[in-house]
Design brief:
By secondary structure, this protein is an alpha+beta fold. It folds into 2 domains: 2-116, Probable inorganic polyphosphate/atp-NAD kinase, domain 1 (Rossmann fold), CATH 3.40.50; 130-286, Tumour Suppressor Smad4, CATH 2.60.200.40. Helices cover 29% and strands 35% of the residues. Strands 5, 6, 7, 8, 9, 10, 11, 12, 13, 14 and 15 form an 11-stranded antiparallel sheet that branches. A 4-stranded parallel sheet has the order 2-1-3-4, sandwiched between helices. Strand 8 (175-181) and strand 9 (184-196) form a beta hairpin. It is elongated, with a radius of gyration of 19 Å.
């Protein structure tokens, strides 16, 4: 019998996943798969996770939650060098990453897990120690995920980010950035930058046309300093999920590695979690993790 460790966040997505737990366990048991639920908590220990994997000896791991849950699972898998495929059941506020990979939690996806259908995807690596699945960012807008009221986030979903983001525009301040991309130097005054591993970013379906999850490259995009009117229009376009890499107020470059510095004090956001302060060393790790697909 195949064994799968199901790592789930009990509070993501308005805490609705808990009511589906028995349904999902039953669906996998019909496919001769034994599920071991692993409940995450706010102060989750990587060591506890490693001990659970060592005792249960799963054939794969499924992350059930939002970006934060998947971020934790991927980093645990890499930290302990686990040669195990990872599945995704999206139950958080924004699941565009799973949608981009054409992953759903329906019967077809459960069949894919049972049959062992997988693909390899890239990961970003920040400062040599923290992996990210989707995006690393800093500047205006990056704090929205931490500032949006939890009740509003659960009831409105990604619309909550849209509303809050537009309300913050008058407070935006640009910062000077220096970017070293595969040995080439660039400078830009920007309100915000994103380093993307995929074109899907927390409620924004596709920001950059060229971004791919398995091309061995990352995509750097920055919103340049501009007038409030231009910024308002551009921000609406981004938050609506439209590609903006060819916009005049956008700086865009694709590379395998980046070094990002600034004279301003900036704290990064990594897959929706608080990350390191600048300067940042970011690189793409090609085919870094196997995903059930």
């Amino acid at each position: 019998m195949k064994k799968i460790l199901l790592v789930y966040n009990p509070v993501s997505g308005n805490a609705k996943f808990k009511s589906r737990l028995d349904e999902i366990i039953a669906a996998f048991q019909r496919r001769n798969i034994l599920i071991a639920p692993y409940r995450t908590s706010q102060n989750e220990s990587a060591r506890n996770f490693a001990e659970c994997v060592r005792e249960f000896k799963p054939h794969g791991i499924i992350s059930a939650g939002g970006y934060g849950t998947l971020h934790a699972v991927i980093n645990w898998v890499k930290k302990f060098q686990l040669d195990l495929p990872v599945g995704i059941i999206g139950s958080g506020t924004s699941n565009d990453f799973a949608t981009h990979l054409k992953i759903s939690d329906g019967e077809n996806y459960f069949d894919a897990v049972a049959q062992g259908r997988t693909r390899y995807i890239d990961l970003g690596l920040m400062n040599g120690r923290e992996y990210f699945v989707n995006v690393a960012s800093a500047g205006a807008l990056t704090s929205i995920a931490h500032e949006v009221d939890a009740r509003q986030k659960n009831s409105l979903g990604k619309v909550a980010y849209y509303i809050h983001g537009l309300g913050e525009i008058p407070k935006f301040k640009s910062v000077p950035l220096k970017i070293l991309a595969d040995g080439k130097n660039f400078s830009v005054d920007a309100f915000l930058f994103l380093v993307l591993n995929s074109p899907a970013v927390a409620g924004m379906k596709k920001v950059v046309n060229a971004a791919q999850i398995d091309d061995g490259k990352l995509d750097f995009i920055a919103i340049k300093k501009s007038s409030p009117r231009s910024l308002f229009t551009l921000t609406k376009k981004i938050l609506s999920g439209n590609c903006v890499d060819d916009e005049p107020n956008i700086f865009y470059v694709q590379a395998k590695s980046f070094e990002i510095t600034s004279t301003a004090e900036l704290i990064s956001d990594v897959d929706g979690e608080l990350g390191d302060a600048l300067p940042l060393q970011i690189e793409c790790v090609h085919n870094a993790v196997e995903i059930f697909s």
